Amino acid sequence: MSRRLLGLTLVFPALAVIAFLFILPLIMSAVGAFQVDGAFGWGNFQKMFDLYTKDIVFTVVIISISTVLIGIASIAIGGYLTLGEHPVAVAILRWLYRWPMFIPFIVVGQILRTFLSKNGMMNNVAINLGLLTPIDAVSFLDWRGIVIAFVWKQTPFVALLVAGAMASINRETIDAARNLGASRLRVLIEIVVPQVGTTLTVGLILSFVTMMSVLSVPLMINAQTPTMLTADIAFRVNSYGDYGVANALGLISLLLASSVAWIYLRASLKERS
Amino acid sequence: MNASRNPVAALWWVPRGLVFGLMAFFIFGPLFNLLLWTVAEKWYFPHSLPLEYGFSSWAKVFAPRGGAVESLTNSIVVALLTVVVSLLLAIPAGYALARLKLPLRGLILLAFLIPQAFPNLTVYVNVARIFYEIGLNGTIPGVVLVHVSHGLVYAVWIATAAFSAIDVELEQAARNIGAGAMRTFLDITLPLAAPGLMASAIFVFLESLDEFTGSYFVGAPDVNMLPLLLYTAGAGGNYQIASITALLLLVPSLVFMLIVERFLKADVLSRVGH
Predict the structure, then answer these.
(1) What distance in Å separates the CA atoms of residue A27 and residue A175, rounded to the nearest whole number?
(2) Which end of chain A is more exposed for a tag (fewer CB within 10 A), N or C?
(3) pLDDT in tens, A85-103
(4) Count of CB pairs separated by less than 8 Å, A with B
């Protein structure tokens, strides 16, 4: 058996699972998006844009803001772990930053719902410290709550990947730049970050698509309009049994997610050529 | 020199302390809040802390009709089966992607990302329809299969990274002294990749434990899982029950968080997605 055939044979079972349990139902839902009362047509999309244009924009904005914040935070954490000069401070950060990583989204939704609400713990602490008067306390359970939940949960994952990649960078260039008098911030931006670009992109893309798929966080933190597309899909199915519009919304999310995946694919192809 | 540097160095602890303190508040504050809810008997506006503490909600959750024991057992059984099936699929696939020349390797790697790249809600609706036809709907194997399709990206990507981090020369040395391909794989490659594979198993286990949407459409109401119990309790405004269920989901997550770095080394991490 040729090596190429052997390779394909070994990959085949895993690919078959994806094909039958994901791609087939995906096609079924894509076809369903164009089906109106048994005939093909654009009706579902018309209805979707009439009802949910605001939510599509809302979803894109929320997830983009979250992705940017996650990227900045994980570069900051990874950078401090790599370039930090005080061993105790580095150890504290290493111990601190990872806690939210494996906390399930549904748990994140539940704990932030009680933490960020108008009379939740965050406002209570601020009031008790005298930073806030009870009248000025506002609930963060809107778009800010979703962004906070996403950044809270996803940053440790991306930071772990980024810090791992930074740790395997050749130390000599960093030390040489430091000896020549470059500040740590400059070393981070000009030497360290460019070398972990691929890992950072992979981490952010995984985060982006994860956030596109999360249903529990928008449902638990902000179910009023405007809301995320996932909450709209669940609403269409549960309240109206309207699979057509739900499938159309799903197709829009696929386009958004695959445009991001396309960026990764192009970057990795460029790297290999 | 030293005398002038030390106070400055000590001063650095002011901004550090502020940043770390804020981070700690935002990370542990919500978790502490959750713990308070699990033992709060009475807690209402405008009180910052519960008025009465007690364990009556725990008794309710673990009562025979509370549903927690059944949900917990189901969740763990499904997660363990998901890990076994995922690794059986991911080990050969990861080895092939790391070591053998494959056409369209980048596309194949990307294919495993598809289940993470699509809001799975509509997909699971259609999966439920297919499973209903073949009698898998509302069964443990059905839920396991859905979780496998979702967790495969972690299993395959990390397994691929783990295999490609192994020095090829070790395998060639074994082959040179007469070991067969299978023997080399089982005695050399697999043990060396074990920490990475363990890490991918952890990711898959947690991904399965966390999974909500698929379990809801394919499992419920016959197969009850912990996330579903948490969601219905929270939606019904019963924050005590929701918080206790959340805590049950949290414990394995935190334990794994503490040990994952032992398995996921930098040389493997830097290869994820390559």
Answers:
(1) 53
(2) C
(3) 888 999 999 989 988 887 8
(4) 275
- Contact residues, A window 209-228, toward B, CB-based 8 Å cutoff: 209-210, 212-213, 215-216, 219-220
Cα B224 versus chain centre, distance = 19
Contact A111 B116 (CB under 8 A): no
* Secondary structure of residue A202 in the 3-state scheme: helix
Measured CA to CA in angstroms, residue B24 lies from A95, A109, B12, B115 at distances of 10, 19, 18, 34
d(CA B100, CA A3): 6
Q: What's the CATH architecture for B63-269?
A: Orthogonal Bundle (1.10)
Would the CB atoms of B106 and A110 count as touching at under 8 Å?
Answer: no
Q: What is the residue range of A226's domain? A: 51-272
Q: Is the pTM of this model over 0.80?
A: yes
As for how many domains chain A has, the answer is: 1
Name the residue among B30, B213, B272 with its Cβ closest to that of A202.
B272
In a domain, A142, yes or no: yes
Domain residue spans in chain B? 2-54, 63-269
Task: Give the CATH number of the domain where residue A268 resides.
Answer: 1.10.3720.10
Q: Is ipTM beyond 0.90?
A: no
Q: For residue range A204-229, what is the model confidence (pLDDT) as tens digits?
A: 988 888 888 888 888 888 767 788 98
Inter-chain contact B269–A254, Cβ cutoff 8 Å? no
Q: How many Cβ atoms from other residues are within 10 Å of residue A66's Cβ?
A: 23
User: Are B93 and A13 inside 8 Å of each other by CB?
Assistant: yes
